[in-house]
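Notes, p. 3: input format for complexes.
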Amino acid sequence: MSTDGLLAHWEGEPVQVWERLWGVPRLEVYRTISSTNDRVRELAEEGAPSFTAVLAEEQSAGRGRSGRSWHAPRESSLLVSFLLPSPDENARALTPLVVGIVVARAVEDVGVGPATLKWPNDVWLVGRKVAGILCEAGWGAGFDPSRQVVAGIGINVRQREEDFPPVLRDGAISLEMAGQTSVRRAELAGRLVTRTRELFSPAPSRLEGELAGEIRSRDALRGRPVVLENGVRGRAAGVAPDGALVVETVAGPRRVTAGSVRVTDPRES
Ligand code: BTN
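Output follows (269 residues plus biotin):
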């Protein structure tokens, strides 16, 4: 894993001050790192406790879902990974969705919203992606994948329209573009930690009660025409208690448990 500079200060304060204020057991902040997810995985293999956090101003090999890369100009975003408790298979399946709620709540905490969720874990503002989440479990000495998971979060904070590559421009947005206001990344990070602790103490194994209600009210797909990765078309009909996306197709309801779906223009459906 390559790194360039573990920072002693971030956003005007010593890193230990943020560690104490946020109440995380361990916090590392890098100027550049290959991927914050990789560093958290390394710490997990050394036995780090849950809620350990790694932040970076820039990633040289940031990863997105489905083997894609994740680029963000230096200091434009909040790039952070947490080590989260994951007591069983069911909880692990829900982690990306629940982290989506964490991010949506934190974004609204700093005054931008409403934030919606595109299954399984993109966070949207006004129909454009403001944050992506990559959850990974790894194997190695000391890291028991049945007990912990790495959750990496990338939130677009300061980008302007022209900072996104042309191919992403129509579908991406930053907090400052959406809210037309400046956002303090340290405040956003603090809110993320608070919301993470709130939702992962303990990690839920089923979407029910308040959590199910929130998933429903934030669901950006519900009722919309979608196409699955295998080309099957249908209409999104909500998220099941185990985290599967339910899609109504001509052949009946279908549960989608992996991959992602694309919203199609209503005229295409
Ligand atoms: C996606 O939408 O494809 C997921 C993007 C996840 C990006 C974050 S940035 C912090 C963490 N480190 C990584 O390498 N990826 C995640």
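The first helix runs from residue 15 to 22.
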